[in-house]
Amino acid sequence: MAKINWRNVVLYTVVLSIPFFAISCAMEVTKLKGHNKTSNELEHTRGLLKELSDGKLGADRVSIAFSKELPEYVKGSDVFFVMGRCNFSWSNMQFEVDINKTRWYYQPLRRKLMLLAHEFGHCQCVNFTHTDKKLKDGCASHYMNGQLPQDNCIDKHWNRYVKQMKEGC
Ligand SMILES: [Zn+2]
Q: What's the pLDDT tens digit per position in 39-48?
């Protein structure tokens, strides 16, 4: 696990607490070099998100890359993974999405799309709030929920989340 440079996290980081999976949104002010690699895998998924959202999410001006520096930590008997994060790079003067490479490959496609939609919701829409309302069955009401929903919720409410993605920013 890479050592976390907490000095980079200046404005705020929100890591929400669901065991095993969490999405973090951070607006990070950094002097480090911005993304210098693109990933075919991520760009492919960006393309799928664009199609899914009728072009509303997945804007090219937001770069996206795998990161090995996303926090993973243990609290009690639970392990928390930060699946994705939105950063602002002062060197590139643009928002950038970081994706947890280790965890990415274990996710079903819909979950990957939910994660990307969420991070583009932050980075593209410049929206750093979460919509944490729950439906009656306990599933997240919105793809901007602070916690990445479990697979059964994503499948059950897929049409709802896709409709929200099509609404754009
Ligand atoms: Zn978030």
A: 889 999 999 9
